[in-house]
Specification:
182 residues; mainly alpha; 7 helices; 2 domains; 40% helix; 4 strands
Amino acid sequence: MDQVHRKVFDTVFGQSTGKPPSVMSLGIAVLDLLSLACSTKPLLLLLDDGQWLDSTSVAVIGFAGRRLAGSSVKLVVALRSGVASEFDTAALPALPVRALPDEEARRLLDLRHPGLDTRVRRLMLDQARGNPLALLELPAHLHVGHPGTSGRGTCRPARCLSATAGAPASAAGVRHPDRGAR
């Protein structure tokens, strides 16, 4: 990395004093760093919960992200649907991640949690509403010993769903539209 870009990072990370760099200066330094990082093999950048990033970070990520087309660097930013984000205006490509169709949701639940009691399985599918994360996580909140669960337990889905509400998140500025009631 050249000295100019190194100085930008040193300033940003508090290793050097000086005037904070502009978004463009930092964005160019980030592109230089990514270019070095992908010089021998492709690079995938995954940023989760992008809706919580500050506006300057989003501006730098957006600046770099818009210039990655055709490179061996790919960027995916996961955003929670229904939450405003600085990425809303970042002009990055978007790919909506939708809820799983019923049959795929059943298949995922059966694959990852075989042997669930029929009533508990139905409850899981109803509560998850096609949300893959919920389908994977809700059964982990079963409590052993409840009669309706073939000895495995009973579910307390409301507590678990509050942690997974809105997921699956969206990717690269992607929004997960609310599925609504069935």
